[in-house]
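Re-run with default settings, no changes from the original entry. Doing this only to confirm the output is reproducible before filing.
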Amino acid sequence: MPAATCSFIDTLSCRDLTAMHLSKSVFFSASFILPVLLSHTANADQLPIQVQFPPLAMEDAPRGGAHPIGGPANVFIDNANELLGALDLELIYHVSGKTPESDRGTVQPSLVSIPENFSNLYEAVAAGPNADGLAAAISVPISSGLESGQLLVAGLPFGLHPSEFASWLISGGGLELEQDIYNEAFDNNLVVVPIALTPGQEAGFFPEPLPTSMTEMCQQPWLARWPAPASAIWQQACQTAGVETTNIGAETLCADPTAACPSEGNPVKHDINALTFGGFQPGRLPQQLRQLDQVDAYELNLPYTGVLMMKRALGLESESNDTVDLSPIIEKAPYFYLNAWHQSFSYIELLVNRQVWDSLSEAQRVAIRTSGQASILETLSSGLEAQGKAIEILKRNGAEVNEWPDELLKPLEEATMPYLESRAEANSAEGDDSYRRVLDHMRSYQEDRQTYFDAADAPR
């Protein structure tokens, strides 16, 4: 085993791994149930993992792929297989839903249909292969069906930075709390392994510069595609400013989100008079919706991801980032904002059926966990590295780079905790205290260390 690979193993030396190496025959005799648990595979030394999204191969995509969840998932699977090859186990990428043409031949088709067979991947893994579910999956906590997933996938607005969240998760009891919540929700049938962490998102593309008054901001006749809980916090801040706003969910300005708005046979459905939230159309990129005038403003992940998704929306995946023309989309909403108050990171996790996990050898489990930690480091560092160039690409294509005005950030921050507290109370009243537990644990962790966090972020 190469020295560089051995350095990933923090609990086992190369000698330990060699000593714990299991041949296929020994593995099968010691864990005779594994072929049944991995019944969807042709070979028992393959562990199929259904990933919520595809990698999305395209020109100038980062290692793994362009998709902000599928790409990091692919990085983890590659890293894990580097170690697991010596331990007679291979992870196989199966993608939920339709496989994009660019990924054909590199990923396998789905094993179960979501939501036809199961409501989400978490339920499918909890059921396990013996109940026509999954051995393993990769997803994000917001897809778990639990309200706490909103806080786990992206933290609290105005909350922990990526490195601080990693500290909370790995060293501060966060992972133990998450595992406890999943044990209760899924009858002890899920094992969770952190595998990726990406940096803070961009903070939106807008058709005009953001005003410096919250009242004026809330009066803008815009349909904004903005995620929860930030959209609800924004609505609460608007209410405090004396402006009532609405959320139309998945709906767009016109009835048919796939056609220009308005166009023949596709009249305007929503007459927007003040800030409105919506536009979360399944399978539709916000950049596509903006190009078709179906939304006015939107945000989506990192600036570099934004560049790649604009290419996809324009059908220009094969073109170089250095020469691609993104202006048809950017000119629709050229005012680009950073300082993502609403989502300072994205957290991605591996889920393994408990019976399958227990059937793996100790060395295989250690290799999987260690590969997850290595992939967190890689996705965080590579994510940071790419953003400077992404901003230059956006500027070259007509984007004007800005930061949110303090006059807007202050009322949004003031509205954050009251809203999160109200959600925690409502969820607890309905019998789900996971939101409350994550909120209190994460907030306590941040408050106990805030003096250092503030001092460590020295001016520069």
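Residues 1-44 have pLDDT under 50 and may be disordered. The first strand starts at residue 46 and ends at 51.
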